[in-house]
Amino acid sequence: MNIGILGLGLIGGSLGLDLLERGHRVIGVSRQETTCFQAIALGSVSEASTDMSRLQAAEVVFICTPLGLIVPKFAELISHLDDATVITDVGSVKTPIVEALSPLWENFIGGHPMAGSTNSGIEAAQRNLFAARPYVLTPTTTTPKKAISTVSEIVLSLGANIYHCQPEQHDRAVSWISHLPVMVSSSLIATAMSEREQDVLELAQKLASTGFRDTSRVGGGNPELGVMMAKYNRQALLNSLQQYRQNLDELIDLIEQENWIKLEEKLQSTQSSRRQFNV
Amino acid sequence: MNIGILGLGLIGGSLGLDLLERGHRVIGVSRQETTCFQAIALGSVSEASTDMSRLQAAEVVFICTPLGLIVPKFAELISHLDDATVITDVGSVKTPIVEALSPLWENFIGGHPMAGSTNSGIEAAQRNLFAARPYVLTPTTTTPKKAISTVSEIVLSLGANIYHCQPEQHDRAVSWISHLPVMVSSSLIATAMSEREQDVLELAQKLASTGFRDTSRVGGGNPELGVMMAKYNRQALLNSLQQYRQNLDELIDLIEQENWIKLEEKLQSTQSSRRQFNV
Questions:
Q1: Which of A94, A190, B179, B258 has its CA 20 to 30 A from that of B12?
Q2: ipTM value for the complex
Q3: By C-alpha distance, which of A178, A28, A165, A68 is closest to A109?
């Protein structure tokens, strides 16, 4: 099959490596010529260009740009394609993408591979990045069955586990388990830094161990990504944050009231609840 | 030297392994006879007994019981000891311990080895548990120099990094980097569970990945330990929680106001602040 990849970063590059290995012709497009050369050298694409019109030859196009560029790049892209071409994206928020793109392109289906790495860019591309990882697809009631099956077959060939849901369901789910943790974790770092006595702050920094390391990890991550989550998934994230604030207030109340029995029940409940998550 | 260990769990047992190896005579005391047998079999003590009076032969006694038992066990212990015996403890909160014990025993010095394991009990004891880990000592203005140097020398021989500070400073520092993270992390789990649509909750549980795993880890830990932290370090923890709530509210406000520039600045600041912690 001829498969196009628009945006050759960690996700686009890794996708290319797997698809090329499975015998497809992979047409890569990047804004940067140097990225095109790197993608070819790494064996991530059959051919690469800065010219979007090359994607005309593709039967399916994966849009793998950063979240904020998916809609504008899509608008440029569709003028080059036949109506039959299936388009999918890999954005980590789905509602605004699907709402913007579905009315413009019948054969569009939103997607989100839940795979990543602390590194980014084509240099970080790796084989089997999607294997045994969740890959969410968000078809709407009007998405043609053929478009769904075409993308599903490719995704299954990567070894990923497919989940189908509505864009809003996806966005709420990732708000709980991905976007809220970033904000919770970032606030932890900011709070620890608010200690006013320099000796105590330095002591805290020296004594910090695995507990602080793990709880603060995602809050110390890429600030641009954090902003993107907040910007594109604002409503779901605000809802999660308000719920979080309520839970935190309940916990503060228990400690203020020295209600150790209820506090222990609450901590027991979160201990057992955590096992229900895929962690 | 004759060194006593009261309480043969992970910390007491590991301490014994190291001290025995360094040529000391280690006298262990546990409430459970089976624990005494295990400690001897593991090479964690030279001798072990359920009889506290055996500690009379010790020049230094480490109290390694759970936090809530340190004060009552100490009260039983001192009737058996000579005044010259140095006593130290390993409790993870220092102010209430030091306030209770210092007036009763001149040769007392509070301590807290920042070492642990997910497992507990004598079975989990291991050599070099304290090596290259922080070990806080909290002498007061009245602690005799000899008591400080005796305990310091033993701690240094374990390969630990000693920090001296006031009990209140220790408790504030661990509140930021150890106790607050537990409450923040536990609230995250409780919040994710508050999703009312069953499909979305199950999706969130399936999509949960490294971000959720790390941020929720300490919130899914031992509930009794969490309660101990809150009970014994209540004031410092409440202060940390109030500060946390303020930081969280600022972040919620920025997202509500769609102030993406300030949000990015905040996330950049937490990203760089995190590097100042020993993580």
A1: B179
A2: 0.93
A3: A165
Q: Would the CB atoms of B212 and A248 count as touching at under 8 Å? A: no
Distance from the Cα of B199 to chain A's closest Cα (Å) equals 8
Cβ atoms of B65 and B7 within 8 Å: the answer is yes
Q: Please, are residues A193 and A220 in contact by the beta-carbon 8 Å criterion?
A: no
Q: Residue B83 falls within a domain, yes or no?
A: yes
Is B279 a domain residue? no
Chain A CA closest to residue B172: A200
Say which of B176, B199, B206 has its CB closest to residue A134.
B206
| CATH number for A203 | 1.10.3660.10
Whole-model pTM over 0.90: yes
Count of other CB atoms within 10 angstroms of residue A149:
11
- Partner-chain residue, chosen from A133, A180, A206, that has the shortest CB–CB distance to B163: A206
Question: Which residue is closest to A197 within chain B, CA to CA?
Answer: B169
pLDDT mean across residues, chain B: 96
pLDDT digits (tens, 9 = 90+) for A25-76: 999 999 999 999 999 999 999 999 999 999 999 999 999 999 999 999 999 9
Q: Which residues have C-beta within 8 Å of that of residue A220, sequence separation ≥ 6?
A: A185, A186, A189, B270, B271, B273, B274, B275
- Looking at the fold, whether A127 and A192 belong to one and the same domain comes out as no
Instruction: Tell me which residue range forms the domain holding A89.
Output: 2-165
Are residues B25 and B155 located together in one domain of the fold?
Answer: yes
Specify if A213 maps to a domain: yes
d(Cα B180, Cα B39) in Å, to the nearest integer? 34
Position A207: which residue type? L
Q: How many CA atoms lie within 13 A of B269 on its CB side?
A: 17
Contact at CB, B215 and A247, closer than 8 angstroms: no
B3 to chain A, closest Cα gap in Å: 27
State the amino acid at position B44 in one-letter form. Answer: S
- The tally of domains found in chain A comes to 2
Classify residue B219: in a domain, yes or no: yes
